[in-house]
Amino acid sequence: MASVNILISSVILTVIFVATITDGETTSKKKENKDRKQFSFTEKQRYDGWFNNLAHPNWGAIDSHMTRKTPPAYSDGVYMLAGQDRPSPRKLSQLFMKGDDGQRSAKNRSALLAFFGQVVSSEVVMASESGCPIEVHRIEIEKCDEMYDPECQGGKSIPFHRAGYDRKTGQSPNNPREQLNRVTSWIDGSFIYSTSEAWINAMRSFENGTLLSDASGKLPVKNTMRVPLFNNPVPNVLRTLSPERLFLLGDPRSNQNPALLSFGNPLLSHGTTWWRARCVRKKGTTPDWPTRAVPES
Ligand SMILES: *[C@@H]1O[C@H](CO)[C@@H](O)[C@H](O)[C@H]1NC(C)=O
Ligand SMILES: *[C@@H]1O[C@H](CO)[C@@H](O)[C@H](O)[C@H]1NC(C)=O
């Protein structure tokens, strides 16, 4: 009730206020209004997904629960893995996906489609990264698996880390474990521009409203400022290599494979070119370009 009262009084106040300013509006007041419009106090869409929907400002924000379309089916109803008695993912993968190399797609699709799909999913979901502490499970390997058990020793498995979750959930059947989305669920360019102000600031040149580019003007730059991109140990050298060899984009997973990285680059260049064009159109001359802003979605 109190909030309704506040709402009504603010509507009345706004009406009075508008009536006052329209009354004797001078040129300076007009300018003032224009400024007020330009620098409105309405919350702006943020990198972390807040305020895209002003009626539901937290919708799609990072660290929201993943949406469930069906009830959870944990084996204990709370948090334990289901399907321990079902065939292992490796077995299913061998059954369904194994085939001769070099066969073309029946629908003439190329690998581009798969990697574009990865970009789109990375843009809206990041939920399979392990939580802390790490919960390790095993994916069973059949004896004599051609890749994981070529010497037929048996008892082999692939380690599997369970996804991170909201620590306030998973304590009782009334409150089963809920996984979190660590990026915005909006298609707002978070794959390219990240979900945090600090991260995107590391990518900015703070000159002419542009992002950092290398000596020849190319994007993206290497991660010399050591932004926390995922940098898993490299299997063939058995250790972690320098994070500075990675390319810096908004998504920590962007260096995972060359195809994914290749997608990030044109998107980044396109976004930047589009932004430059918009600045020129808005401001006319380049020296006036804002030094901090980057494109909003
Ligand atoms: C795929 O490409 C081949 C050769 O160009 C063509 O004969 C075939 O009709 C195409 N298939 C589909 C589903 O478009
Ligand atoms: C910013 O714009 C000025 C004038 O166009 C130019 O001389 C300068 O090199 C630009 N700086 C960057 C980082 O692009």
Key words describing this protein structure:
single chain, 297 residues, mainly alpha, two-stranded antiparallel ribbon, 4 strands, disordered C terminus, binds 2-acetamido-2-deoxy-beta-D-glucopyranose
Structure report:
Helix 4 packs across helix 7. The chain has a domain of 106 residues. The strands form two sheets. The chain has a two-stranded antiparallel ribbon with strand order 1-4. 12% of the residues are buried. The longest helix is centred in the C-terminal third of the chain and has 26 residues. The protein contains seven helices and four strands; from the N terminus they run ααβααβββααα. With 297 residues, it is mostly helical. The radius of gyration is 26 Å and the shape is globular. The protein binds 2-acetamido-2-deoxy-beta-D-glucopyranose (NAG) (2 copies). One 2-acetamido-2-deoxy-beta-D-glucopyranose binds next to loops.
What is shown here, in short?
The protein has 297 residues and is mainly alpha-helical. The chain contains seven helices and four strands.
Strand content: under 5%
The termini sit apart by 37 Å
Helix content: 25-40%
Please outline the major beta sheet. 2 strands, antiparallel
SSE class: mainly alpha
Q: Please compute the radius of gyration using only Cα atoms.
A: 26 Å
Tally of individual helices: 7
Uncertain spans: 1-25, 287-297
Output the helix-strand order: HHEHHEEEHHH
Widest beta sheet: strand line-up = 1-4
* C-alpha geometry: globular
- Mean pLDDT, rounded to whole units? 83
Hetero groups in this structure are: 2-acetamido-2-deoxy-beta-D-glucopyranose
How many beta strands in the DSSP annotation?
Answer: 4
